[in-house]
């Protein structure tokens, strides 16, 4: 089971999180208005799931991420929790890759696999997830795993929310199918160097 988090807020695209009892029920989700389509409720099957739903994959860490709709083709690094309880983020440098949070399932396992990336990388310009908010339901995402298998996901929904209302349960809560969450910053860039006002979250389900 995937641990739920009592708080999750991206500050400079870092996820502030406090692990709690894995068996705890999902926490309440703030009724913020998505900028695009709404989130898929935690614990529900993806659209079209049933006898045709693909079988879960064996655990294997992701090594590459491809999103043709927004021109993403990037290596994937592993991210853990920092000493202050925040999820680590890729480095602020030119060509910084996306990062997979190693406290989440690997892509293709049952549960929400979480990948993060920067929208901008300081003086180096655009980040790998610059256009994440442009994704639409039905867009395909391919994750190449270390064992050579590729997991293909279809976008269910895209959500932009204020950081203070980060949808913890929807992002990290247990689901009954292989799912993917892509996270970056969004909204207005603050002039005081504190990052962005919002987060963009893409919810996707494995289809192949």
Automatic annotation (TrEMBL):
Composition bias, kind Low complexity: at what positions?
30-56
| Region (Disordered), start-end ranges | 16-56
Keyword list, A-Z: Hydrolase
Q: Does the keyword Hydrolase apply?
A: yes
Q: Which SUPFAM superfamilies match?
A: Sortase
Name of the featured protein: Class F sortase
Q: What is the lineage of its organism?
A: Bacteria, Bacillati, Actinomycetota, Actinomycetes, Kitasatosporales
């Amino acid at each position: 089971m995937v641990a739920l988090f009592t708080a999750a807020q991206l500050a400079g695209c870092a996820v502030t999180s406090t692990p709690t009892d894995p068996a705890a029920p999902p926490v309440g989700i703030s009724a913020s208005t998505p900028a695009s389509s709404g989130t898929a409720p935690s614990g529900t099957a993806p659209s079209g799931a049933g006898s045709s739903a693909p079988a879960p994959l064996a655990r294997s860490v992701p090594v590459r991420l491809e999103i043709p709709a927004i021109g993403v083709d990037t290596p994937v690094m592993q991210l853990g929790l920092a000493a202050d309880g925040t999820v680590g983020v890729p480095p602020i440098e030119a060509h910084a890759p996306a990062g997979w949070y190693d406290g989440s399932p690997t892509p293709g396992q049952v549960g929400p696999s979480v990948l993060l990336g920067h929208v901008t990388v300081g003086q180096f310009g655009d980040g790998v997830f610059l256009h994440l908010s442009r994704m639409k339901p039905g867009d395909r995402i391919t994750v190449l795993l270390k064992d050579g298998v590729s997991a293909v996901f279809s976008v269910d929904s895209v959500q932009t929310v204020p950081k203070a209302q980060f949808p913890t349960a929807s992002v990290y809560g247990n689901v009954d199918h292989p799912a993917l969450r892509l996270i970056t910053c969004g909204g207005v860039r603050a002039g005081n160097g504190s990052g962005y006002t919002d987060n963009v979250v893409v919810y996707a389900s494995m289809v192949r």
